[in-house]
Design goal:
alpha+beta; globular; seven-stranded mixed beta sheet; 5 helices
Length: 153
């Protein structure tokens, strides 16, 4: 597996669309999916490849010169749990550290949304040191309560 930073906006969108469309348990709302695909164009973006096949990607951004945020990420279902996400997260976290960030944030669905897919996502973040910070039900609506998680780096 090789991890590569992607700088071209169109390539970021192409990869994000290719991966996210294969993850309907996480990205089943078409309007949100389209926003994420367009949104990666100006974000930090790393992708993992096995030869020419893209296995997944992580995108993020920096706020106020000290806070990194995971924007959107996705790993192909058949490669989840095989270290791809961990490797991508480590590369992105190192970028945040090199840019003098001291905190990383991520938004995900809270436990109040009964989804085994998002339970898996929260477990992934917790294993990397993220802790729940605050629930923001007004952000995505009562049907999709947002959980903000934080990690000090």
């Amino acid at each position: 597996m090789k991890i590569q930073e992607i700088k071209d906006s169109d390539e970021k969108q192409r990869i994000a669309g290719q991966i996210l469309h294969q993850l309907p348990d996480w990205f089943g709302i078409e309007e949100a999916l389209s926003e994420y695909i367009l949104g990666v164009s100006d974000k930090i973006f790393f992708a993992a490849f096995d030869g020419k096949q893209c296995l997944g990607f992580f995108s993020g951004e920096i706020h106020y010169q000290h806070t990194g945020e995971l924007y959107v990420l996705g790993i192909l279902p058949e490669h989840q749990g095989n270290g791809v996400g961990t490797a991508l997260y480590q590369v992105l976290e190192q970028r945040f550290i090199s840019e003098k960030c001291d905190t990383v944030l991520v938004k995900t669905l809270s436990e109040r949304h009964l989804s085994s897919a998002y339970a898996q996502t929260r477990t992934f973040y917790k294993k990397r040191g993220f802790v729940p910070l605050i629930e923001l039900p007004e952000l995505w609506g009562a049907q999709n309560p947002c959980l903000l998680m934080e990690k000090r780096i």
